[in-house]
Amino acid sequence: MSESPRRKRESMSLILMLPNMVTILGLCAGLTSIRFVLVGRFDIAAALIIFAALIDGLDGLLARRLNAASEIGGELDSLSDFLCFGVAPGILVFQFALSRDFATGWMFVLIYICCACLRLARFNVSRDEPAPVGKPHFIGVPAPGGAMLALLPLFLTQLGTLDARDFPVVFGVWTLLVAWLMVSKVPTLSSKAVRVKREWQVVVLLAGAVIVGLMVTRFWLLLVILDLAYAMVIAWAVVQYFRKPRRPEEP
User: Fold this and answer.
1) Residue 249: what pLDDT?
2) I want to staple 109 with a disulfide (CB 3.0 to 4.6 A). Which of 78, 90, 154, 188 is the partner?
3) 5-243 has which fold?
4) Which residues contact 146 (CB under 8 A, 6 or more apart)?
5) What is the pLDDT of residues 91-137, one digit of tens each?
């Protein structure tokens, strides 16, 4: 006998719950990152935020593939992103390098977190609007990318290149710059726009092997390289944005 319609409404396949389970996994990673910040394990805290960034977007992909998209899933994803890429990096940055000057350091963090919230709110409002004209791109730096940029000084410290805690003002100004990039109108790179020619597939696969090797041997070096590469891409996007002629405003 087939399952009754009422029974179908009251139950749900476990497979259809996978997208929200992935979102909750990322949320737990962000919360646990804050826990490790409180005990001074900044390396583990940063690694958990990176983990949350790696699985970000997987929930949406699963929801589309499984036809399991829902309103609660979209809202849950946005709230999880705010904690993982707004609150958690802000607290980590403050405790790691900005807590020596409590008033000024906390102001930098508040601005960063508020900008992350505004960036996600803007994304939610425009979620159902038509896609931007041209190649797929983001408007402003996405929240996960902003978190990675904000943590660049910490990555450099873990690598041993410099100690960002000796330059709290520079660290704070860098955090403000990242905050502005998140709420700006600068078109930034989207992974959907990246295309690889067939003759370059082998090179890309080998690069993936190199990344995996560095991940298990020189983790912080890999993060610095990727973060600096992303920062240069964003810098080029900013230059192109300000060089582009503006249309005169209509009266």
Assistant:
1) 45
2) 90
3) Four Helix Bundle (Hemerythrin (Met), subunit A) (1.20.120)
4) 85, 115, 116, 119, 178, 179, 181, 182
5) 999 998 888 766 778 889 999 999 999 988 887 777 666 666 666 67
Beta strands at 137-139 and 187-189: parallel, antiparallel or unpaired: antiparallel
Q: How far apart are CA 55 and CA 44, in angstroms?
A: 17
Q: Tokens in use for 41?
A: 């394990």
Per-residue pLDDT of 42-89, as tens digits, reads 999 999 999 998 888 777 677 677 676 667 767 787 888 889 999 999
Domain residue extents for the chain: 5-243
For 94, the token pair is: 């403050």
Q: Taking the model in full, what pTM does it have?
A: 0.83
Query: What is the 3 state secondary structure string of 204-231?
Result: HHHHHHHHHHHHHHCHHHHHHHHHHHHH
